[in-house]
Amino acid sequence: MHIPDGFLSTRIAVSLDAISGATILYASRRVRFATSDRLIPVMGVLAAFVFASQMLNFPIIGGTSGHLVGGALLGILLGPMAGFLTMATVLIAQALFLQDGGLLALGANIFNIGAVTAFVGHGTYSLLGGGKGNPKRVTFAGFVAAFLSLIASAACCALQLALSGTIPLQIGLPAMVGYHAVIGMIEGGLTAGILSFLLHVRPDLLNSDIKPKLNILDWAGALILVAIPAAILATAGSSGLPDPLQGLLISNAPPPPSAADAQQLLSSGRFTDYAFRLGIFFLFVCIVYIAARLAPGRRHSP
Amino acid sequence: MRHSFIDRFANLDSPLHALDARTKLLGFAALIVAILLIPQGRDFIFFSYFFFIAIFAGISQIPLGFIVRRALTILPFIILATLAAPWRGIAGLSTLFLRAILCLIVVIVLTNTTRFVELLRGLRGLGCPQVLASNLGFLYRYLFVLTEEFMQMRQARDCRRVGRAPFRKELAIMGSMLGTLLVRSFEHAERMYKAMLSRGYAGEFPVANPHRFSWPDLVFLLAITLFVWTTFFGFPLPRI
User: Which entry of A48, A75, A143, B130 is 20 to 30 Å from B218 by CA?
Assistant: First the structure.
């Protein structure tokens, strides 16, 4: 689900970077000024919690394993703003240190896995009345919120990949949504389990006063953030730029290369020529690497 | 328990490790953007980038096996993309593969030559919001504490049971384990907040030694600029 670099077209990746960056700046100002400093260590430790629980896969049924994504949980516990910031932290750390997802695609990943899950999770949870404190309600609302948050996130991811022309929507959307429906059941079950556990053990944490509330300005800001890329996409058709939507709706992909083409390529000698030049090139890369390796510095001792 | 998987080789000592974190962040980000802007099908420009990055990888003294192993984690995604869009042909797929793997190697070199604290300081110097920076700092500091607590919990669970429970029961057990961890996280946070207050926290975490930008940083940035310029527009010398 983490998109690597190179899978998104530069236009899509950069515009999502801008959106996520703006949201992070806005959310950190909001969190900074609207609440007490008490939230800061809570966000930090919960980021560590989500990072740790995402690394620890546990067996579910048969040979499959799963882990908590946690966006909806954070949205419910901390409110969407702080929850989003915490998820963004986790995603940045994952991109930098586990190489999960690319650096330029980070904006897209923060949007899909951070913003969409936290906001959809929080929205669904409060719409279903999870905040009322009724244990059955809390479990149910938590399950649905986490499930829907993953579905929405997967749909966004498939849409971005399709707009970039990497994976067509007809294949990507059913595959992504179908796969994440299964993952979403696990996510929902875990979120519901955690929420009902918290309700029994520390009910004060579920309804704490430290989470910043959303006001009308936040909704206006969110609307603008979603409207800008939509407008860019809509107007791209009338400008000289190639329109990604057109490619999405009308499938004008060239026919797949046939076996005869491949044979022709092999027999024409272009392929062996290419492979030969490739080999020479990698030989040079190795020589350069070894030469650079001899530069001063302490060696790694295992 | 081995915990040093994050910035594993950041404590080595090489010219690349000695650079300012801001320089490295800027330079490597520029390289990634350049890699993503290379048009499809120009495979030999990609290979020249391999060349360039191999120099950095060599200088950094990170074991080659580590880089290769980390870089190959991209393969499942490539296979997925091949299956989903087979008409892209060899040219499209090789571009996708080269782009993804080059960017990955750049990130690996960046994070394994910079210690986490340095990286955070660099990010902060480049205008990253304080809340995000402190979040990342707390994440790094508490990740290992929480991982260890979770592993102890898992060990305790495995000692107390045989086989596996049905799916719903398993989810409930896992939910309570994660819930316990969450409560402990909140308790950590409360203690941290008290500690922060008693040490005079006022919105910023002060750091001891400030950044320094010296001539190796300049050389590094100039080398990257010159290389990227050359691959896009040719070598910047007047034709005679």
Answer: B130
Tally the C-alpha atoms within 13 A of residue A91's C-alpha that lie toward its C-beta: 32
Location of structure tokens 């329109």: A243
Mutate to test the interface with A, among B139, B153, B155, B183 (most CBs of A within 10 A): B139
**CA angle, corner B11, sides to A53 and A52, nearest 5?**
5
Domain A10-249, CATH among 1.20.140.10, 3.30.70.1350, 3.40.50.300, 1.10.1760.20:
1.10.1760.20
DSSP state of B13: B
Instruction: Give me the amino acid identity at B148.
Output: E
**Tell me: the pLDDT tens digits for B97-117?**
888 888 889 988 888 888 888
CB-based contact A183:A221 (threshold 8 Å): no
Query: What global pTM score does this model have?
Result: 0.82
State the Cα–Cα distance between residues A69 and A176, nearest whole angstrom: 15
Residue contact A298–B182, C-beta within 8 A: no
Nearest CA in chain A to B177: A194
- E strands along chain A, which residues? 58-59, 65-66
